[in-house]
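Hey L., structure's done. Input below.
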Amino acid sequence: MSLSFSIEASDGKARAGQVKTAHGIFRTPAFMPVGTGGTVKAMTPDSLAATGSDIILANTYHLMLRPGAEIVRSLGGLGKMMGWPGPILTDSGGFQIMSLAKLRKLTDGGVTFKSHIDGTEHFLSPEKSIGIQETLNATISMVLDECTAYPCSKEEAEKSMKLSMGWSAQSKDAFNPRPGFGLFGIVQGGIHFDLRRESATFLEEQKFDGYAIGGLAVGEGSEILHEVAGFTAGLLPCDKPRYLMGVGRPEDLVQAVSVGCDMFDCVLPTRSGRTGQAFTHRGTVNIRNSRHRSDARPLDELCDCPTCLSYTRGYLHHLVRSGEILGSMLMTWHNIHYYQGLMASIRRHILGGEFSRFEASFRELYLEGDIEPLT
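Output:
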């Protein structure tokens, strides 16, 4: 349709490329910080750009409720409203069909939600979801789907997948193609390979701009996640971007790239930053731990983000334990910088034909864990 995806280099199944959009280019593999309600928590657009972020994610359901799609349009669209000049991908609301199961009623025609904010009822159909995403001026829209819960029976997974495929076709029909804008289909089917194959085949026949792997990172565990993601990625067209939704931890990102996934999103770096957990080259660090109280070292000695260049672990410990807003800001900035640095390093090693060597060295250092301070 309207997005341009080019692969610059491959190393095994890992790919490095770029996607040209109406709102600029983003490089792949790409990690999208999550800005659910039109803001990436504790970050400004300038600080996001400084981390190397090319594209961010926002959520149709949440923006539909507050401030409302028409308000966003009146303020110039989502990007202009929030001061972000680059591409934005909007989730369709499908994840909330699972996460807000107690507040919704599901039918073949769509889903009726009771707002988690004030209890008012809102109906979301495939056509309405696509219309809202266009009103928001999303660069990449997602089809409405039902994110299959885990665990569930194969019969439930099949019923959910077939519902999602029907909604995908309706979403495709409702989408208004414009130069530089695109629509992604979402593969469902739970943990069942035959259902995943059926879903991927149906979506490929629909000719989407990109293809997402949905219904994972919902509690199934790393081994199943990696197995199903790898199988599904191998079913998808080679000439379109592949988006593994809701993933994840740094080690999961590296694994997913190795099987051919190109795009990722997850709340982990931002949510963890606000609760005092940092992702570093040597694994995770809980800055709330008392051992950091008087530690004069940076959070990550191999990191060049503003947090690590200017502040000590001891100060970060003080900020987070005191509940200071600056603590959330500095920890989140570091985490997103780390994630984008990981993506940049992955791209560089794919382009250099050394991804396998990078993967091995990454895992060795990351699994080594944090170094205790000298006493």
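The mean pLDDT is 95. The CA atoms of residues 301 and 308 lie 7 Å apart.

-- N.
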